[in-house]
UniProtKB/TrEMBL annotation, chains A, B:
Gene Ontology molecular function terms on file: oxidoreductase activity, acting on the CH-CH group of donors, NAD or NADP as acceptor
Segments forming domain Alcohol dehydrogenase-like C-terminal: 108-238
Oligomer and partners: Homodimer.
Gene3D superfamilies in the record: Medium-chain alcohol dehydrogenases, catalytic domain, NAD(P)-binding Rossmann-like Domain
Lineage: Eukaryota, Viridiplantae, Streptophyta, Embryophyta, Tracheophyta
Domain Oxidoreductase N-terminal intervals: 5-54
Name of this chain's protein: Enoyl reductase (ER) domain-containing protein
Oxidoreductase found in the keyword field: yes
Domain of life the protein comes from: Eukaryota
Keyword Lipid metabolism: no
UniProt organism field: Triticum aestivum
Length: 285, 285
């Protein structure tokens, strides 16, 4: 149980046990008729060189081994499906929609923004450093981006970025950003709630004051979890593999070598040291 | 513009002009080919004995004059359609759902709760006096009800009323009630946001702190306004007229006589003096 007295959707880590992470694995021994030696799969695995996979309901065989296998921890795996489900199934975009993505330089945010561009939307991202803002505008094709740490008044920032208002908010942070977005939403706006990371480590949660906008503007705000969308995985995998091959989606990775680099790579995440998806290469094909 | 710097969905009152209200009218003169002398209509009219109706897009002819005509200002009119649209179209109930309604003794709340009972749901209402709580349990068939002014801890109250959690919240008040409901929602719960009356006259809006529940529980929170649902009016009118004739829906009115009683009746609303829908009878059939 988390300190909010509510169960989370991921079991709490028990000290002494092997950490779990998203990984790509090759079958070296199998007791299951559907899996044979040499099959490639992705899913939640132990952070170890050899791992026992029993949770097959959250593993998928890899259908596009011609693409980098590492992509299956990111753009072709759970983070990719998260962006896809949250943007298409929850936010239900229309061509020409005005879209804002928070924590936009994270893998999910990057992809949500690029899927919005592919869908003919206007997309602005928020991120926490000038380097990330620059990456959003150059590498990931966002129409605009801003460093929220440098903005005095997020309401004014959003009014500047969206003079006609916002149709879709792909929400990763919560708190003050959500409050400012609500004031700038258009009629029938949608808030697709992927996470509220600004609130997770606060002793005292921030209050969101502008929820009255939900009535006057008929806003739909909806949370989602990728596991509920696994039935769409094959459709997503084909579509995303196509975008990658056509160069319509850009994706970057930061790779460290060897299982012994895992602790450093993990801790680096909390300091924002990585720019692309952080990977640890344990073995290579 | 309201003090929240956002346009409301009803134009601000201009001192010196005639007040508007929901009314039932009989046509005494008509310049429109679809309306003839003696036709009965309901919609937004001036608070006066004779009124000029030009906003025909928000007026409807009355199809069931065999029921009390006054019902068309309430259970068969805009408040009724509000409850119907917010409960069926927005909250999308399933048989057996656990439902909580705030401001439940108001006309919309009463009807939302009774529609929930007709749909096979378990319904609890909150209200602001013991008299109202009693009315909910006796007259309107709620399974349970509580006086929120007497509860120390709304979270504990809801845990007591809903040991298995809440599927649907028909939201009329916002603030602390919404925060407590979010903590008690079940997976895939729905918050149908009809209003947030607790916030409308505050100098400093209350913050809602438990929005992180929206992700973990995949909650959908959606605002609505009855005008968006006028296309369903005829379907609603037939269904509700049927429930009234079968005695499946109870409805109470407080009637004062004469246009001169209007100011007293209006001011009484702010003190909660009325129990049923407050009406002013200007002329009778």
């Amino acid at each position: 149980m988390s300190r909010h007295e509510e169960p989370s959707y991921v079991p709490d880590f028990v000290p002494g046990e092997v950490l779990t992470t998203l990984g790509v694995s090759k079958v070296v021994e199998s007791g299951h008729q559907d899996y044979k030696l040499g099959d490639l799969v992705w899913g939640m695995t132990g952070c170890e060189e050899y791992t026992l996979i029993t949770n097959l309901e959250s593993h998928f065989k890899i259908n596009h081994p011609e693409l980098p296998l590492s992509y299956y921890t990111g753009v072709l795996g759970m983070p990719g499906l998260t962006a896809y489900a949250g943007f298409f199934d929850v936010a239900k975009p229309k061509k020409g929609d005005y879209v804002v993505v928070s924590a936009a330089s994270g893998v999910v945010g990057q992809l949500a923004g690029q899927l919005a561009k592919i869908s003919g939307c206007y997309v602005v991202g928020s991120a926490g450093s000038d380097e990330k803002v620059n990456l959003l505008k150059t590498k990931f094709g966002f129409d605009d981006a801003f460093n929220y740490k440098k903005e005095q008044d997020l309401n004014a920032t959003l009014k500047r970025c969206f003079p006609e208002g916002i149709d879709i908010y792909f929400e990763n942070v919560g708190g003050a950003m959500l409050d400012a977005v609500l004031l700038n939403m258009r009629l029938h706006g949608r808030v697709s709630v992927c996470g509220m990371i600004s609130q997770y480590n606060l002793e005292q949660l921030e209050g969101v004051r502008n929820l009255f906008c939900i009535v006057a503007k008929r806003i739909r705000m909806e949370g989602f979890i990728v596991m509920d969308h696994y039935s769409n995985y094959r459709k997503f995998e084909e579509e995303m593999a196509g975008y990658l091959k056509e160069g319509k989606i850009n994706y970057v990775e930061d790779v460290t070598e060897g299982i012994e680099s895992f602790p450093t790579a993990l801790i680096g995440l909390f300091y924002g040291r990585n720019v692309g998806k952080q990977l640890v290469a344990v073995a290579r094909e």
